[in-house]
């Protein structure tokens, strides 16, 4: 099986390595291709300032760095230029015109923020304490309401379109489990009918769009969760609806480029997938080629 990773973060946002270090490591690992997907800037459009989104003024430097790497590695490693675009309803999303004007090869569409009925935007990918406070103050202590708001955002992002890859589809689960064994479900019941229903809706909506779902091992690589995104039940629904899948490390360090890909492969096989897809560029729309999965469960 040929390996690729289209979900990577360098020091242009919240990663720890530069573009060239990623390229060298991908080459050493025998990768088919490598894509860069810095967290797109959001501050000017939303007023939200984070420690992990790329600053607006660094965007031209980022674009130049990846394009220069593509020239340096031509004939040895396929290099693709992308961004991970945040969807924040009413403020910004991957369908925004400025993304189309950047000459990107691809976009990952992701939901990292929820806007509560009360209070400021809530970052769901961060530490538990601010999320707990956001549930208490913004959602009246109702974790299920937060979960519904998350699914509403993902559904709205898919409906708006403009992106090629659905990023960490059920990110909401990251902070649902407290440390310890066995951990309690502190926001929602992951086996509850409503959670499964909404996740199934997302999978079926994705099937109508032509987007690819990533099997994201970033949470495992960073010790946050024990399984990839999406969860096994959701991955099975994606397969039942013929949504193509790719494996991505959501790497914040070059050494994590193929981190826990074996776990992702087993999850795909368990869901009934027989292959993944590899990105082959974009001419109007993304082009993908099929890559068989190795082995059996």
Structure notes:
Helix 1 (19-28) links the parallel strand 1 and strand 2 (33-39). The protein is an alpha/beta fold and 297 residues long. Helix 6 runs parallel beside helix 7 (193-207) and helix 7 runs parallel beside helix 9. The chain contains ten helices and eleven strands. It has a single domain, classed as Metal-dependent hydrolases (TIM Barrel, Alpha-Beta Barrel). It starts with a strand and ends in a 5-residue tail after the last strand. The mean pLDDT is 95.
Descriptive key words:
297 residues, alpha/beta, TIM Barrel, 7-stranded parallel sheet, 10 helices, 34% helix
Sum this structure up briefly.
With 297 residues, the chain is α/β, with parallel strands linked by helices. It has 10 helices and 11 strands.
Which percent range describes the beta-strand content?
15-25%
**SSE-based structural type:** alpha/beta
How much helical structure, as a percent, in the residues?
25-40%
Shape: globular
């Amino acid at each position: 099986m040929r390996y690729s990773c289209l979900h990577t973060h360098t020091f242009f946002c919240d990663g720890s390595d530069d573009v060239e270090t990623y390229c060298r490591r991908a080459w050493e690992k025998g990768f088919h291709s490598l894509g860069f997907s810095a967290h797109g800037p959001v501050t000017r459009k939303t007023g939200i300032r984070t420690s992990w989104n790329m600053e607006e003024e660094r965007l031209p430097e980022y674009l130049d760095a990846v394009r220069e790497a593509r020239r340096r590695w031509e004939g040895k490693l396929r290099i693709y230029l992308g961004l991970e675009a945040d969807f924040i309803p009413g403020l910004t999303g991957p369908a925004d015109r400025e993304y189309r004007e950047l000459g990107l090869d691809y976009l990952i569409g992701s939901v990292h923020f929820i806007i509560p009925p009360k209070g400021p935007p809530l970052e769901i990918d961060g530490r538990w304490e601010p999320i707990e406070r956001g549930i208490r103050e913004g959602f009246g202590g109702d974790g299920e309401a937060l979960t519904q708001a998350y699914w509403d955002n993902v559904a709205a992002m898919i409906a708006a379109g403009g992106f090629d890859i659905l990023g960490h589809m059920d990110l909401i689960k990251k902070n649902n489990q407290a440390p310890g064994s066995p951990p309690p479900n502190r926001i929602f019941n992951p086996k509850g009918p409503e959670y499964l229903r909404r996740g199934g809706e997302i999978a079926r909506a994705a099937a109508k769009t032509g987007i690819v779902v990533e099997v994201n091992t970033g949470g495992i690589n960073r010790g946050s969760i024990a399984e990839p995104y999406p969860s096994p039940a959701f991955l099975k629904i994606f397969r039942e609806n013929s949504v193509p899948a790719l494996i991505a490390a959501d790497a914040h360090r070059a050494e994590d480029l193929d981190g826990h890909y074996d776990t992702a492969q087993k999850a795909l096989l368990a869901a009934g997938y027989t292959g993944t897809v590899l990105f082959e560029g974009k001419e109007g729309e993304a082009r993908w080629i099929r890559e068989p999965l190795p082995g059996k469960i």
